[in-house]
Structure formats: structure tokens, C-alpha cells
Design brief:
alpha/beta, Rossmann fold, globular
């Protein structure tokens, strides 16, 4: 995995947060997880921090304060968030949500599997790609 990379999780469902923490704990090299329970607090973090050590942002769609789509739109309109890798991680399987998120600039759209084993495998695959295989333009 990339050197000292961090994963950002913007998710209000504590159950999903715990599942992702569990998946991360099973990886051979564990990236740091930065968790935000709403989009507004995440966007404040973006304004105040360097994004160079962020491998990927896992972003839920249905959250209080700001929806994931509002967060994604704000990121893509901000120089610091323009190239930040964002994966929508949501329970939605709506074609309208998929289309809207890609139109707004998401890098991937992953529907959360219901079964624990499927969820774990999906999260592990997503993280493996973004941590081990993706070349992030923010690193250079």
C-alpha cells in the first residue's frame, strides 16, 4: 500500500463506520481512517488541511446537514478537492443517483452490499485499488 495514506469516510451510519473499521483492521497494512459524520465537517477539514496524504474519500449520499451530492459538488468546485479521489458508497441503487454522481465528478459508485461478507469483500477491493494501484495526481 502507498506510504502513510489516509482514508476519509464521510458516513453518518455508525454501523457502517464500524464495519469499515473492521475491514481496515484486517488489512496487512492499515491506513489511518478519518471519519466525518456529515459533509459540512468534512468540507471544513478540506479547507484547513492538505489533501496529499488522502488516498480516497468514501462518501455516503444520504446524510444530514449536507447530502453526499452536495459535498461532491462542493469538492469539485474547489481547487483542493477537484482531483481528490471520491467513491460514492451508498445503499442507493437508483440509476438517477448513479448518473447524477458521475455527472458531478465521482470516481466510482459502489452500492453497499447487505450481507457482511459481501460488504467486507467490496470494501477491501475498493481500498486495495485506491491504496495500491491508483496513481493520485495530488501526490506529485
Amino acid at each position: 500500500m502507498n506510504k502513510a495514506k489516509k482514508i476519509v469516510l464521510v458516513e453518518d451510519n455508525i454501523g457502517d463506520v464500524k464495519l469499515i473499521e473492521f475491514v481496515l483492521s484486517s488489512l496487512s497494512v492499515r491506513p489511518e481512517l478519518l471519519h466525518f459524520d456529515n459533509g459540512k465537517s468534512f468540507l471544513t477539514f478540506v479547507k484547513e488541511s492538505s489533501m496529499e496524504d488522502i488516498a480516497v474519500v468514501l462518501l455516503d449520499l444520504n446524510m444530514p446537514v449536507m447530502t453526499g451530492m452536495e459535498v461532491l459538488k462542493a469538492l469539485r468546485n474547489d481547487d483542493k478537492g477537484k482531483y481528490l479521489p471520491v467513491v460514492i458508497l451508498t445503499s442507493s441503487r437508483s440509476y438517477q443517483d448513479v448518473e447524477a454522481c458521475y455527472r458531478l465528478g465521482t470516481n466510482a459508485f459502489v452500492a453497499k452490499p447487505v450481507e457482511f461478507d459481501d460488504f467486507s469483500r467490496s470494501i477491501e477491493a475498493v481500498l486495495q485499488f485506491w491504496l495500491e494501484h491508483n496513481i493520485n495526481p495530488l501526490e506529485h
